[in-house]
Description:
mainly alpha
Amino acid sequence: xxxxxxxxxxxxxxxxxxxxxxxxxxxxxxxxxxxxxxxxxxxxxxxxxxxxxxxxxxxxxxxxxxxxxxxxxxxxxxxxxxxxxxxxxxxxxxxxxxxxxxxxxxxxxxxxxxxxxxxxxxxxxxxxxxxxxxxxxxxxxxxxxxxxxxxxxxxxxxxxxxxxxxxxxxxxxxxxxxxxxxxxxxxxxxxxxxxxxxxxxxxxxxxxxxxxxxxxxxxxxxxxxxxxxxxxxxxxxxxxxxxxxxxxxxxxxxxxxxxxxxxxxxxxxxxxxxxxxxxxxxxxxxxxxxxx
Length: 292
């Protein structure tokens, strides 16, 4: 018996990865996640390919949707209601907000289905479960970059055509940080919702509605200075962590001052949401197969 136990112990040392039970609420093994970086890349590529497979217009759908929404908002809220700022073309004002919001909302809507949508694979093959929402967040960047390119095309068209009352801020180099902030905030909310929907399935029906409703409590529809006479509503808008990001994006492209205090608030909220989301995600991933 002693020799058999010794042999088993010796053989266990030959394994590269040893799975042992863990009970901690917080355990993010970055080294293990890094080992699966190729899987993140492959899953992101798969998601991108699946979006355009068997479609007629392919990536053009990422252009049609924001433009349709932009022209609708420009007509209803800009021209009819007069809510857009007078010193910026309504098309650019609304498109800049819609592009940012679409990426944030897209990350939430996709990552919130991590456990329920990927149960068949996750229950059969081991890999860090965080690979799935991270790959979705990365693949959503393609849609965002296409829409951002569409905005830039309109931006420079207006720049060339007529007298320009605005200018590009040198803080344009900070755009990657804003994108990272949007991605992290969307990922944090998405994994938190995904963890909760494993037990409460009806929450998934509220995600799309909730995200859409939250958009109307952001400066996508109107600039914040329009709310100066309604202080309580202005406070609600400022509680939305996406408000400073959208405002900073517009400040960069229209040469306005950036609200650094607001971005600091968003950074703190993002850190808290990501921390709580990952903690709950880790707690659920160990037993989700028994629930889903």
